[in-house]
Design a protein that fits this description.
Layout: E1 4-8, H1 11-22, E2 29-34, H2 41-51, E3 68-72, E4 76-81, H3 88-94, E5 105-109, E6 122-131, E7 134-142
Parallel strand pairs: 2-5, 2-6, 4-5
Antiparallel strand pairs: 1-7, 3-4, 6-7
Helix pairs in contact: 1-2
Length: 155
Amino acid sequence: MPSVEILSRSTEETISQGRELAASLRPPLLILLTGELGAGKTTLAKGIISGLGVAAEEDITSPTFTLIHTFTGRVKVFHVDLYRVSDVHDFDTLGLEELFAEPAIVLIEWPERMRLRTDWPVLRIALEHVADDVRKITIAETVPDKFARRSSGTA
């Protein structure tokens, strides 16, 4: 799949783009959400998760402090935020490998803070500020088993 770029001009539009994307998602799938603070990662995740029908939009919040939120419905969805993960020990105590024990959709914010290998398909979504209320969302699929971050022992 070639990369796709979408411009979003509001929070509502970003959520709508996430809902639209959700219609094409099937487990197992790892979704990596990258972008600076405030770029819209959690907002897009709200759209994806609510679009999958596993939670109401208002029930989806950033898992910054709990690190992992689990949603179940017609599919199992894990929403992970690694912003507060600072080292290998923190990462290893999360037990993220367990999330891949059964087919699910796993959304990870701040994936650059992790080291993990999976043979699941990976969807990379980068969000960036273009203007005050405008975000560019770039979606690219990667080849399975090619995702590994900082495998040298640091998270």
